[in-house]
């Protein structure tokens, strides 16, 4: 994320061609919604999840902001006056919480997970590959890669003009919306989370018995 923000602010970045085609914003992503828009999802869990993520991002942003400020001191007769200024201001031009959230949305929705040479999982941005849309059962197989290439293996034939899809996994519409900012109309993996409280004595009568009857 920090690399992405830094490179976006560098007009001479060697990745300029790639950076210029990244979305400038994600209006369909819940982290970009207003409080009024999130309120429309009350009861689904999406509103609370989005608010929790944004609060966590705010804490991380504030922590990083402190690290990006260098403190110098000037001794005066009445004590020490501290003067704060940005360390390496050219490294993160226009540093803001909005850019930080944008970087999170970009990495979270477009990155691929790979295993590095230390056998550790890490997220990488792969030009072109990160443009593949999601479709359950997409004809793509395993990955092969190193520092010089990234190859996605197809498990079906594609004709000229066909759209190549990726499969993001067995995700519900909640997962798709909270991560990528879209839903599927007919999603075989969709489910609904219900939130309620019950007295233990009523659990069998009000929940278990009706469920057993429903599946008979």
TrEMBL record:
It comes from the Eukaryota. Gene3D superfamilies: set domain protein methyltransferase, domain 1. One of its GO terms (molecular function) is protein-lysine N-methyltransferase activity. InterPro entries: SET_dom_sf, SETD3_SETD6_MTase. SUPFAM superfamilies: SET domain (SSF82199). This is Uncharacterized protein.
């Amino acid at each position: 994320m920090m690399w992405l923000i830094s490179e976006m602010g560098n007009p001479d970045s060697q990745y300029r061609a790639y950076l210029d085609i990244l979305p400038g914003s994600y209006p369909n992503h819940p982290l970009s919604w207003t409080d009024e828009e999130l309120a429309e999802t009350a009861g689904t869990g999406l509103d609370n999840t989005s608010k929790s993520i944004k609060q966590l991002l705010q804490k991380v942003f504030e922590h990083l902001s402190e690290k990006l400020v260098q403190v110098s001191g000037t001794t005066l007769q009445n004590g020490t006056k501290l003067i704060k200024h940005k360390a390496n201001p050219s490294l993160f031009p226009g540093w803001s919480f909005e850019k930080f959230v944008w970087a999170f949305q970009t990495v979270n929705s477009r990155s691929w997970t790979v295993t590095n040479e230390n056998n550790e999982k890490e997220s990488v941005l792969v030009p072109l590959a990160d443009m593949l849309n999601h479709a359950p059962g997409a004809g793509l197989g395993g990955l092969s890669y190193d520092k010089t290439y990234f190859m996605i293996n197809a498990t079906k034939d594609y004709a000229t003009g066909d759209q190549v899809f990726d499969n993001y996994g067995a995700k519900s519409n909640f997962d798709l919306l909270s991560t990528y900012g879209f839903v599927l109309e007919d999603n075989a993996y969709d489910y609904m989370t219900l939130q309620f409280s019950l007295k233990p004595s009523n659990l069998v009568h009000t929940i278990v018995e009706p469920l057993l009857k429903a599946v008979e």
